[in-house]
Task: structure prediction
Amino acid sequence: MTMRALIGGNGPEWTVEEIERPEQLGAVRVQVMAAGLNRADLYALDGTYTAAGQTAGTFTAGMEVAGIVERSSLLAPGLPVGARVMGITAGAFADYALCHPRMLVPIPDRLSFDEAATLPVGLITEHDALVTQAGFEPGDTVLIVGGTSSIGLVGIQLAKALGAETVIATTTTEDKRGALVAAGADVTVDTTNGDLVESVLEATNGRGADITLDHVGGDLFAQLPAATAVGGRIVSIGRLAGAATELNLDTIAFRRQKLIGTTFSIRTRSELGDVVQALVPEVLPAVRDGRITAHLDSVHTAGEAKTAADRLRANAATGKVVLSFADAHTSTPPGPSATANMWGSIAQIGYVVRDIEASMRQFAACGIGPWFYLKGVTPTNFTYRGEPADMAMDVAVANSGDIQIELITPVNDAPSMYRDFLDAGHEGVQHVAYWSENFQELYDRALAAGFTVGQEGQIGGADGRFAYLQTEHHPGTVIEISDLGGSKKFIFDLIKLAAANWDGSNPIQEIDAALIGGDPAAQAAMLEALG
Result:
């Protein structure tokens, strides 16, 4: 099947193309609803940057995704089909994207997909720089240079959410100061008409910032050591104003500062997974309760990608520019199967045979036993295809580890699914059984999922119900669900115990059929026989 994607590497702009939906063992496939646009996407487009996971030559663009899990991964049991997720990946600008399980986190309920698409890159960039690289502690003063960028706005909120005493943020546009204050900045500085060092020292009683996160670079970077405290840390994250600068190394040396560079483009998948998962303990709760919010500048369709890119190129955005792919997903959202894992684990394999005693002997010769043999079992309230039937059967059971083996031979001509099985010329495995201590709930779920009951009844009273569902697509695929309670549980536990301690003697033991009806005398007799 194909999908729409924005392809880079063909020229100065992305091209919209139809390509095959991606496949990869172990990956999560996400139905992309929205994707965040980043400076790095523009750099990758003009060939000056290679994103992690980007292929050589032409490539599916994008690195920041929000959407719905369309195909889950065994490596991510916490992200089932239908889960709302956000994260980072190569190839996010498409209707579907493959994601490594550890590079995704759940979207908090309060966020739309467009809002969620504004956060992953900002959260991982700022958290990694502030906490992992710079060693942030509550009470620190943080200077964020380039605060009105989408990442900078996230950094302001993150620092405040984690307990920064003072957050100072810069802008180069006077009318964007309000965005800095709304994000939580305590002090704002317009670096085009204000002295950055003087403003920071005034706000910090002459100390300077404990941590400076720089998203700008260029000439302004030269002022950062003087604005940063003795023993402070300066992290170079972005270089919007250029990669070249001139530093006074004496200032750095005398103030015993650390200069830290960071990028994600050359980190391994394992390292990136660690960065994303580091958000879970503190950052996601802050998003969930509203201490960190989305800053959405504008939303554009995939066909408007050039308009979106031009807005970012012109530095016109306050917050994140987002591409929407929701128009490709107007049908019912993907969700988990109603039947997946609904039964639990197989507890019993049921054989329908013509000669039950010969079958027991053969199983015993293969090392499975001892067998407990009940003749003439007649379930109460038994119905076949909704009609009462006086079915009688011989039954034998034994365990092989945790799996019970059941042998059944119908002994009269009353209609049943066992009789149907033999009349069709079959013999052998007829059903697999799942046991539940909440039979009614499982029964109701089965009917709600569209299954039809072929036969049902009770063995051992009200807590001994069973039902066989009409699921046979070849011999052996009928599903039985059975109540595991009362006298039935008593017997089954003893049979399992007997198998665990069997020494090969007394391979077949005939027991009173009244035992499964809960008869106390029959139970006492069996306990005595088993010692």
Remarks:
- The chain has a mean pLDDT of 93.
- The radius of gyration is 34 Å.
- The longest strand covers residues 28-37.
- The first helix runs from residue 39 to 45.
